[in-house]
């Protein structure tokens, strides 16, 4: 698991460390880390600095000083000369660093425009310099122009090949593209309590993924119920059921109008035309392709009343938005996972806004449910305040039917008894991994993503006896 801390928490921790270490030592440790990574990634020995008005610029200037001491030719543009970090600038000049009007003929640019204090897009003068760069960029702490707490970007911003950050990761490093992120230890760890966000790593997902043991049978792994699809949209039922079947060794019961289609594709699923005949399950997936008519509402009511965890997706979310009385069917102790994309979120709660973490938390709190807000960085919030983030490295998963697969995965993990937040987090990770594996550089339909689920699970599981 990788923890991420918001800037307010980082500053508080930094203040506590600064109270007991010599002035400037944190910055020099940070800058030494920047210089070390710069030497490693730069294709040549000419490095340029973009230096802003604060300590982020100070880091860049001190990094320039260390690079000069290694014989690198270093030039710097000062965006606000009177406010450039005084000691850093003096050290940089003394070491032979040159102050220039524009960066030309450099192999790497170090972005020290703005860091933790950055808000909004790059200002025009900084944007002008960034627009004319023709070398890769190493961002100090975070790529300038990206909000460090939300990853939001509204205009010109630095596109970093590498980001070197200090003490701990910040939300931007999981929510937005920061290139290859490197963490330099500056002694903050003892001052940091639990993180604000957590990113699951492959090993976490592998360790949590349910696999059958010697005493397991088809029931002990959990029975997933799928209430999805309709005569108009049978495909959603086929995809969600397939994902549930492939995710674990448990059983899957399908109930709905697409029973014939599901049976034809998945003979191992127990199919029935009506929710009332479905039999016992340990979790329900409700909504994909279900429709929003009275019959679909009745299905959702039945599922919410069943006393087992529910993953409510797609049309189920629309129905809950249109008719909040449907929530009354839910026993307050029944865990619910909601999986909205932005438009569904708007119907359910209102504007998502720039702060996707806050948006997911708001909905989790309002509905006392785990809320998985879909996006390039998917944010998953639990009502108890825990938040997971899962950033996709590619966008191949954004294709029709992909959400149906995700809800089937979540339902299957819920049925296996995983904590709902972990179920959603593990499913999201395997989902994007399956998309990457299936796509392998070319667009894919959701059925190809579905077929790659076993490979994705193999990829996250620790190597064990076959
Ligand atoms: N604290 C520590 O111990 C350590 C801190 N460290 C380092 O300090 C960094 C934080 O430094 P910081 O707080 O001085 O602010 P910083 O991010 O440099 O911003 C400077 C000024 O930029 C401006 N600005 C704002 N938005 C902007 C935009 N979009 N585009 C352009 N400009 C914009 C705004 O200026 P103003 O509004 O006043 O004109 C703001 O005041 C941190 O990220 C890390 O690198 C490390 O050395 C480790 C030890
Ligand atoms: K920066």
TrEMBL record:
Binding site for K(+): 56, 111, 144
Residues at which (6S)-NADPHX binds: 55-59, 115-121, 141, 236, 289, 341, 404
Pfam family, one: Carb_kinase
Entry note: cofactor: Binds 1 potassium ion per subunit.
Reaction equations catalysed: (6R)-NADHX = (6S)-NADHX; (6S)-NADPHX + ADP = AMP + phosphate + NADPH + H(+); (6R)-NADPHX = (6S)-NADPHX; (6S)-NADHX + ADP = AMP + phosphate + NADH + H(+)
Gene3D superfamilies recorded: 3.40.1190.20, YjeF N-terminal domain
Residues in YjeF N-terminal domain copies: 10-194
One Gene Ontology biological process: metabolite repair
Cofactor needs: K(+); Mg(2+)
Signal peptide interval: none
GO molecular function: ADP-dependent NAD(P)H-hydrate dehydratase activity; ATP binding; kinase activity; metal ion binding; NAD(P)HX epimerase activity
UniProt-annotated binding residues for AMP: 374-378, 403
InterPro entries: Carbohydrate_kinase_pred_CS (IPR017953), CARKD (IPR000631), Nnr (IPR030677), Ribokinase-like (IPR029056), YjeF_N_dom (IPR004443), YjeF_N_dom_sf (IPR036652)
Residue ranges of domain YjeF C-terminal in the record: 201-460
UniProt entry tagged with the keyword Coiled coil: no
Coiled coil stretches, renumbered: none
Record key words, sorted: ATP-binding, Isomerase, Kinase, Lyase, Metal-binding, Multifunctional enzyme, NAD, NADP, Nucleotide-binding, Potassium, Transferase
EC number of the protein: 4.2.1.136, 5.1.99.6
Function: Bifunctional enzyme that catalyzes the epimerization of the S- and R-forms of NAD(P)HX and the dehydration of the S-form of NAD(P)HX at the expense of ADP, which is converted to AMP. This allows the repair of both epimers of NAD(P)HX, a damaged form of NAD(P)H that is a result of enzymatic or heat-dependent hydration.
UniProt record similarity statement: In the N-terminal section; belongs to the NnrE/AIBP family. Belongs to the NnrE/AIBP family.
Subunit structure: Homotetramer.
Family annotation (NCBIfam families): yjeF_cterm, yjeF_nterm
Protein name: Bifunctional NAD(P)H-hydrate repair enzyme
Organism, as annotated: Saccharothrix tamanrassetensis
């Amino acid at each position: 698991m990788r923890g991420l801390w918001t800037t307010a928490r980082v500053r508080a921790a930094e203040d506590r460390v600064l109270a007991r270490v010599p002035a400037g030592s944190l910055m020099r440790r940070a800058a030494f880390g920047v210089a070390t990574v710069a030497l490693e990634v730069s294709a040549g020995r000419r490095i340029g600095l973009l230096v802003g008005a604060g300590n982020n610029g100070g880091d860049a200037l001190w990094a320039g000083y260390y690079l000069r001491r290694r014989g690198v030719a270093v030039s710097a543009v000062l965006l606000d000369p009177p406010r450039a970090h005084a000691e850093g600038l003096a050290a940089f000049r003394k070491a032979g660093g040159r102050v220039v009007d524009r960066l030309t003929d450099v192999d790497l640019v170090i972005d020290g425009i703005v860091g933790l204090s950055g808000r909004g897009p790059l200002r025009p003068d900084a944007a002008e310099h960034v627009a004319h760069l023709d070398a890769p960029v190493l961002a100090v702490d975070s790529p300038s122009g990206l909000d460090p707490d939300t990853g939001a970007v509204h205009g010109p911003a630095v596109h970093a090949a590498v980001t070197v950050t200090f003490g701990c990761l910040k939300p931007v490093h999981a929510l937005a593209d920061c290139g290859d992120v490197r963490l330099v230890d500056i002694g903050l760890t003892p001052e940091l309590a639990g993180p604000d966000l957590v990113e699951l790593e492959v090993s976490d997902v592998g360790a949590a993924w349910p696999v059958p043991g010697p005493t397991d049978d088809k029931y002990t792994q959990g029975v997933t119920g799928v209430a999805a699809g309709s005569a108009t949209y049978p495909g959603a039922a086929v995809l969600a059921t397939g994902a549930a079947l492939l995710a674990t060794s448990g059983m899957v019961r399908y109930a709905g109008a697409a029973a014939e289609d599901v049976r034809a594709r998945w003979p191992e699923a127990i199919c029935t035309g009506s929710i009332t005949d479905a039999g016992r399950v340990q979790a329900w997936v409700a909504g994909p392709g279900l429709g929003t008519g009275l019959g679909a509402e009745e299905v959702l009511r039945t599922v919410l009343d069943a006393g087992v965890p529910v993953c409510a997706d797609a049309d189920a979310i629309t129905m809950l938005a249109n008719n909040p009385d449907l929530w009354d069917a839910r026993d307050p102790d029944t865990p619910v996972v909601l999986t909205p994309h932005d438009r569904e979120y708007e119907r359910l709660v209102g504007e998502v806004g720039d702060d996707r973490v806050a948006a997911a938390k708001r909905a989790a709190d309002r509905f006392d449910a785990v809320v998985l807000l879909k996006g390039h960085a998917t944010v998953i919030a639990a009502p108890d305040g825990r938040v997971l983030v899962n950033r996709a490295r590619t966008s191949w998963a954004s294709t029709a039917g992909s959400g149906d697969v995700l809800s089937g995965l979540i339902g299957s993990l819920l049925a296996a008894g995983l904590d709902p937040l972990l179920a959603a987090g593990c499913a999201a990770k395997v989902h994007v991994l399956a998309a990457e594996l299936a796509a392998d550089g070319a667009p894919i339909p959701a059925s190809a993503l579905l077929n790659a689920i076993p490979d994705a699970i193999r990829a996250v599981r620790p190597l064990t006896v076959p």
